[in-house]
């Protein structure tokens, strides 16, 4: 994703029920899972597929498991590219915005965000620019920098460590 813009497609409400964040950080396994709206899933999926066919999207990843920040980290680890995130949470608490598991959301990489944003608006699909790639780190909106290489190393060490009983 060298010199790409990452865009969030879909609406965010910050749904944390039954989420990885709730289980791993808060130590809880309660709340209802995020509601699924099949019509929205279909409309968003059809839009995503059309934009890929049009050549506007170079990569896409769903946001269901772990939320938006986990999705972004997975995408960056795949390419080794960093990203400076914009502060786009709005009125949603930051932890709910970045780790909520709302449905019908995708992070996409595009070389030219404006045609994608215009198409999304015309289709009634919420679209938000998350940031531009080109950094070596994942830089959070508060300025905290996390090395993409360290994210990858930690991710790749997890399964072997579990298999060794660590």
SSE arrangement:
Layout: E1 5-9, H1 20-24, H2 38-53, E2 59-62, H3 67-79, E3 83-85, H4 94-99, E4 106-110, H5 113-123, E5 127-133, E6 137-139, E7 145-147, H6 148-163
Parallel strand pairs: 3-6
Antiparallel strand pairs: 1-4, 1-5, 2-4, 3-5, 6-7
Helix pairs in contact: 3-6
- Structural class call reads alpha+beta
Helix content: 40-55%
Residue stretches low in confidence (pLDDT < 50, at least 5 long) are: none
Strand order of the largest sheet: 2-4-1-5-3-6-7
Which of globular, elongated, flat, extended, rod-shaped describes the shape?
Answer: globular
What's the total count of β strands?
Answer: 7
Please write the string of helix (H) and strand (E) elements: EHHEHEHEHEEEH
What number of structural domains do the residues give? Answer: 1
- Helix segment count? 6
Estimated share of beta-strand residues: 15-25%
CATH topology: Phosphoribosyl-aminoimidazole Synthetase, Chain A, domain 2
The CATH class: Alpha Beta
Radius of gyration: 16 Å
The CATH homologous superfamily is named: PurM-like C-terminal domain
What is the end-to-end distance?
A: 34 Å
Protein name: Phosphoribosylformylglycinamidine synthase II
Pfam family, one: AIRS_C
Organism: Roseomonas mucosa
GO molecular function: phosphoribosylformylglycinamidine synthase activity
Could you explain how this protein is built, in words?
- With 166 residues, this protein is of the alpha+beta class.
- It is 40% helix and 18% strand.
- The protein has a single domain (5-163), classed as Phosphoribosyl-aminoimidazole Synthetase, Chain A, domain 2 (Alpha-Beta Complex).
- Strands 2-4-1-5-3-6-7 form a seven-stranded mixed β-sheet, sandwiched between helices.
- The protein is globular.
- The termini are far apart.
- The mean pLDDT is 94.
- This is Phosphoribosylformylglycinamidine synthase II.
- InterPro entries: PRibForGlyAmidine_synth_PurL (IPR010074), PurM-like_C_dom (IPR010918), PurM-like_C_sf (IPR036676).
- GO terms for molecular function: phosphoribosylformylglycinamidine synthase activity.
């Amino acid at each position: 994703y060298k010199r790409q813009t990452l865009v969030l497609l879909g609406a965010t409400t910050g749904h944390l029920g039954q989420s990885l964040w709730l289980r791993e950080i808060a130590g809880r396994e309660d709340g209802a899972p995020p509601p699924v709206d099949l019509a929205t899933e279909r409309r968003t999926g059809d839009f995503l597929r059309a934009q890929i066919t049009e050549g506007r999207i170079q990569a896409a990843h769903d946001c269901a498991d772990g939320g938006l920040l986990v999705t972004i980290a997975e995408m960056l680890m795949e390419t080794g590219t960093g990203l400076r995130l914009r502060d786009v949470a709005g009125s949603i608490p930051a932890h709910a915005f970045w780790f909520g598991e709302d449905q019908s959301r995708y992070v996409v990489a595009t070389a030219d965000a404006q045609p994608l944003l215009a198409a999304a608006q015309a289709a009634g699909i919420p679209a938000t620019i998350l940031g531009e790639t080109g950094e070596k780190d994942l830089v959070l909106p508060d300025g905290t920098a996390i090395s993409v290489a360290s994210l990858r190393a930690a991710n790749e060490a997890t399964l072997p460590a579990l298999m060794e009983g660590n």
